[in-house]
Amino acid sequence: MEESKEFNIDEALKRLDEINRELSREGISLSDSLALYKEGVELSAKCRENLDSIEKEIKILTPSQE
Fold this sequence. Notes:
The protein is built from two helices and no strands. The chain has helices at 9-24, 30-61. The relative contact order is 0.13.
């Protein structure tokens, strides 16, 4: 994924699904597996950051129930 493009969680999740399928493929080389795994870990971290940010926004926008 390009760094200059705004992060899109839907695209990231789709790519993570593709990576999972590729890693499950028979005959994939160790170097390809490692590269895919690294990309998956990075995307997963970005998704987590994005979801954490959204959760914070929701908490700010939602009135307290106290």
